[in-house]
């Protein structure tokens, strides 16, 4: 798929919800410090695949996963890594901003506490995370106010700050802008582009313009399989597969 250093990968991954197979022999690699867009029609398995990379399916009894998932050379499931450690190193931001019903400050502080970050280091980390997520200027005088009073776009940037505060290596984003207006979306896209300097980013999106604006690489999925992946420009301008072509041209989806 690329010559860059691979940060995160899956090889021959299969996943079942009960008897229903949702991921079929998925092999994919996400290069370090790049943005990869995962695209494909509704229900093709994008979110399910994304969630495998931070062990979000661990608590679902009906889920069966096969295959190899690696963070660099460390196995996400079979090695020494605990689910908590995996989730610290592979952060996730969801479609619907989901701040805790607590203060802006506590939203970030909470993750630091459960990861045993010393108390005296936390205020500095929180300030940096808010700065890094382009929201500090808007909230610096309101840190003790409830996070739920922020706008949707601000809540989403707070959720990104919550993820980056734990210094992950990868940030998974599941349609992070789908509930946002164009101005908030533009701010998040600008933020994502800046974050790739420090993080590897995988973003699920239904917005083809968004994928073309921000993604270095694009992966097209259909019915649980990876149909095609490559440089974003190639996927959109010269797709090799007819299904990819029809999807990116908006003929189905
Ligand atoms: N907990 C579950 N139990 C059973 N089936 C599930 C479960 N979660 C998802 N599925 C099924 O798995 C398939 C893939 O779902 P997934 O959410 O990964 O698709 P997606 O490509 O992210 O879709 P969308 O773009 O609409 O968010 C769908 O058929 C869905 O109904």
TrEMBL record:
SMART domains membership: AAA
The keyword ATP-binding appears for this protein: yes
Domain of life: Bacteria
Record bears the keyword Ribosomal protein: no
InterPro entries: AAA+_ATPase (IPR003593), ABC_transporter-like_ATP-bd (IPR003439), ABC_transporter-like_CS (IPR017871), P-loop_NTPase (IPR027417), PstB-like (IPR005670)
Pfam family, one: ABC_tran
Domain ABC transporter: 6-248
GO terms, biological process: phosphate ion transmembrane transport
Annotated keywords: ATP-binding, Nucleotide-binding, Phosphate transport, Transport
GO cellular component, one term: membrane
Molecular function in Gene Ontology: ATP binding; ATP hydrolysis activity; phosphate transmembrane transporter activity
UniProt-recorded name of the protein: Phosphate ABC transporter ATP-binding protein (PhoT family)
């Amino acid at each position: 798929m690329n010559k860059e250093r691979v940060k995160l990968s899956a090889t021959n991954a299969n996943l079942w919800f009960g008897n229903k197979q949702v991921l079929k022999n998925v092999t994919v690699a996400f290069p370090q410090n790049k943005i990869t867009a995962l695209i494909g029609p509704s229900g093709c398995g994008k979110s399910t695949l994304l969630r495998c990379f931070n062990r979000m399916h661990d608590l679902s009894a009906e889920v069966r996963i096969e295959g190899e998932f690696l963070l660099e050379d460390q196995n996400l499931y079979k090695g020494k890594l605990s689910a908590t450690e995996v989730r610290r190193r592979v952060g996730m931001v969801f479609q619907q901003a989901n701040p805790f019903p607590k203060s802006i400050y506590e939203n970030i502080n909470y993750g630091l506490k459960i990861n045993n970050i010393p108390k005296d280091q936390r205020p500095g980390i929180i300030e940096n995370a808010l700065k890094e997520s382009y929201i500090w200027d808007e909230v610096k005088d309101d840190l003790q106010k409830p996070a739920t009073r922020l706008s949707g776009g601000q809540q989403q940037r707070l959720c990104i700050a919550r993820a980056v505060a734990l210094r992950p290596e990868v940030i998974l984003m599941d349609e992070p802008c789908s509930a946002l207006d164009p101005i908030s979306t533009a701010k998040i896209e600008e933020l994502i582009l800046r974050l790739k300097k420090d993080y590897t980013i995988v973003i699920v999106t239904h917005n083809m313009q968004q994928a073309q604006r921000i993604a270095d690489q694009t992966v097209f999925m259909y019915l649980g399989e990876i149909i095609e992946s490559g440089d974003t420009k190639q996927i959109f301008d010269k797709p090799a597969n007819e299904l990819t072509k029809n999807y990116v041209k908006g003929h189905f989806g």
